[in-house]
Amino acid sequence: MKRFASPQRVTIADVARVADVSKTTVSHVLSGKRPVALPTRARVETAIQELGYRPDGLARSLRTRRTHMVALVIPDITNPYYPLLARGLEDGMVGGYRTFICNSDGHSEREQEFLAEVADRRADGIVLDSFTMGADWIEAVVPEGMPVVRIGTTVADDPGYDTVHADDEHGAHRATTHLMGKGHRRVGMIQGPAGAGGKRNDGYLRALHEAGVAVDPELVVSGEWTRPGGAVAARRLLGLADPPTAVFCANDLMALGAMDAARGLGLEIPRDLALVGFDDIEAAAMVSPPLTTVSNLAYETGLMAGVLLRERMTGQFRGAPRTVTLPCKLVERATT
Amino acid sequence: MKRFASPQRVTIADVARVADVSKTTVSHVLSGKRPVALPTRARVETAIQELGYRPDGLARSLRTRRTHMVALVIPDITNPYYPLLARGLEDGMVGGYRTFICNSDGHSEREQEFLAEVADRRADGIVLDSFTMGADWIEAVVPEGMPVVRIGTTVADDPGYDTVHADDEHGAHRATTHLMGKGHRRVGMIQGPAGAGGKRNDGYLRALHEAGVAVDPELVVSGEWTRPGGAVAARRLLGLADPPTAVFCANDLMALGAMDAARGLGLEIPRDLALVGFDDIEAAAMVSPPLTTVSNLAYETGLMAGVLLRERMTGQFRGAPRTVTLPCKLVERATT
DNA sequence: AGCGGGGAGCAAACCGATTTGCCTCAGTCG
DNA sequence: CGACTGAGGCAAATCGGTTTGCTCCCCGCT
């Protein structure tokens, strides 16, 4: 029983019929993988024009095992760091790759789900920015042979995959020494969730250590990577019996939140509280007073990730995992 | 559970063989579309576990004609309005739809290319924010039956598709009357490229008209929808023989650029130049002085678009194209 | 004359699922 | 007792391409 469906899609078989050749020949005209005589080719091409034929991407991908799609698994596209990274990624892997974005909100179950889903969809590659996922988790879900590039350093020394990250440790160290150079001795830090610490915390600790300042564990608090997250963390710090006079924040959003909190408590910045952020998002230059921060090259990070990923996807490179470290610079503005 | 060294993917046929049933039965266990006896089902399920079988999304999509993917075609994800919209979109169409984002940078050829590509990839739906694309262009490239939801109003009165947009005309009117309420008579406007004008310009003109102020065409200039774009436009306005004392900018990014330009010329805001933006992006509240602007509900816009799109994709709604208009409010801060 | 090679084209297998149609075997209803 | 129904299962068609093998023919070399 034939169902009278909506206007049937034009398939390669239709083209073949109209041009009076086999499907094979049409395919070869399209791909150029085998020679086709000029007159035949012309017949096929007119048939294609005439019918308005467009090859079906799904069918093609099924056979060729290439989807020309990559997944970008990140915490939150709403964090202004990531849109830039996303564009860098697209520019980095030239040649018709589309990106679909998975916002995990930092939940590792969602990250895991996404990876599985993306694997099922047969993405050609994955760019993953996760604070929690170790190589074992990834391997459990991503079929071997599917290229993965990692972003960020929070899961340190993961030798399984290509990685591109900023020199967080150095940046954090620089930020902290800068604060101490301004005379501060009680320097706090607001870091990300999960208490894992991470390179930014390492740099902070090393700077304190080198300056011979004892680390007060009370001065290091965790919070969500968001503006409100920074605000609550800052309130905790400022509520201490002996509060810090300066705070290094592991990202700009949290630093902005800290500014909100400080202002809410009637403190003036930088007189009563000095602040350094991390990332140098656009907003950092626009707040008042403009935020001193550490640059984190979002676009370039994406770009490099794109290059590494494409080299893997095309098979152009098959060697051992590579790590690219991008520099961080202190951007001195008015909150210190 | 078990890691496979075998390069071969586990298919439904493998599962069928191990469970000693037909592929059909495995499929029915998975989909539940036909009953399967309990013991059989159990055999199949253990086989699935044992082999670590995961259905191939491509093959499935090819047959079912559903990809559970939608395309979001926008000018630039780097514009902070769009990440929010993107998340709203995901939340709006509940149920496992993935979004892939196409940055057109406002070039209509790229928009066209993206639409075609996305159609070839058999996306289940498209959300399109384009200033230039008319219904005819879309129809030329998108197969009929493929749901499209439009965002924004710049291409006015396009009856072909569901649309969700902010009440731009009203917002712009409100912004302009607000400026005139502060005593300004020479009120300029910085609008988007293409000179098309658009609803925001309409509201501006209507406000002037109602106040009995003659429109000086010199006071309306076009620029890119970016911060630098706003800066160059503002410099043109401020270089006039009789420059405006207030400017309404068609988006916040341009307003920020105008602030840059004004500051570069030694003007103080709002004393020497009053400014109103549009969109109320996060940065608007953070600049100094904080920007007076018109709210544009990015997240809600995406959310509504998601709802409309899902209703079309699932076939839940088949009626005539709908239009949703979201309200705009003036957010008064310190640049007026 | 025999052989290798390449141009040109076709039929059929393949990618990995879903869906249709058909068969068998109870059990139920009239 | 025959008709009908629903559970349970299988083989084969389908989705729309690409790729493999094979044939046929013509050409240039030894």
Tell me about this structure.
2 copies of one chain form a homodimer. The first copy, chain A, has helices at 12-19, 23-31, 38-51, 57-64, 81-92, 108-120, 135-141, 168-181, 199-210, 227-238, 252-264, 282-286, 298-313; strands at residues 69-74, 98-103, 125-128, 148-151, 162-166, 187-191, 220-222, 246-249, 274-276, 293-294, 323-326, 330-331. By secondary structure, chain A is α/β, with parallel strands linked by helices. Chain A has a 6-stranded parallel β-sheet with strand order 2-1-3-4-5-11, sandwiched between helices. A 4-stranded parallel β-sheet of chain A has the order 7-6-8-9, sandwiched between helices. In chain A, strand 6 (187-191), helix 9 (199-210) and strand 7 form a beta-alpha-beta unit. In chain A, helix 1 (12-19) crosses helix 3. The longest helix of chain A is centred in the C-terminal third of the chain and has 16 residues, at 298-313. The interface between A and B is large, with 46 and 46 residues. The first copy, chain A, binds a DNA duplex (30 and 30 nucleotides) through residues 1, 9, 11-13, 21-25, 27-28, 30-31, 33-37, 40, 55-65.
